[in-house]
Amino acid sequence: MTAVLTAPAAPDLDAAAVKRPFALARHSLALAWRNLVKTMRNPEQLLDVTLQPIIFTAMFGFLLGGALAGDTAAYLQTLVPALMVMLTLFASIQSGTNFSTDLKSGLFDRFRSMPIGRSAPLIGAVLGDAIRYVVTIVVLLGFSYLLGFRIETDPARALAACLLAIGLGFALSWVFLLLGAVMKEPGSVQGIAFIVTFPLTFGTNMLTPTASMPGWLQAWMDVNPSVYAMDAARGLMVGGPVATPVAVTLAWIAGIIAVFAPLAVAAYRRRT
Questions:
Q1: What is the pTM of this model?
Q2: Please, which residues have CB within 8 angstroms of residue 175's CB and are 6 or more apart in sequence?
């Protein structure tokens, strides 16, 4: 009688990984560190978030400051907190573009063969891009300070304003990850992402007061999460209402993540 030897079935490494306590968080942080190291070794990837704060601050401050506030420094007091939110949202676009590039290169096929949670690469991607938010905020505040901007509250509230802007950028990055998962070309992701971002950033009271807007634009601003984030940042950095803008912004952040994070993960699983 000949015995038939059967190789044991390979364990479901992915399922085993996600069942271990805190495994998904550990894997996500490891991949976030990978993305961070990759960015630091290629500093040209930070060129946009380094130059945009300088360009937008100088352009808006010197072009509109005298006409709207009588003085550039005075105008910066209301412009800079709102500009911080706008630039953070622009920085989040790169999350979707990089994700689409990595998908197209086959990198995520390698991730599938590793004992990590299926959603870890997505979480790692958005966490790793936090360096982009930090750089754009540091450059913005540093350059604005040279032009006359001053924080009128305290460092703790100013830090809270920065974290709120980063939170909204983090939430919006899930929208762009979804685009990266369903669209085949990184250029297409970037194009659609800019179409999404422009109404969110320029359809606001960033440059001029809400009362000066036509009725239809004011209606849009009533439901635009960026408006609440900008009002919250202004209140936290230079004084003004804080409780309602912060609460609404946090609700928007939670809602966007709750809707688009599962959709992005599902689209990624179908793609890979």
A1: 0.84
A2: 96, 193, 196, 256, 260
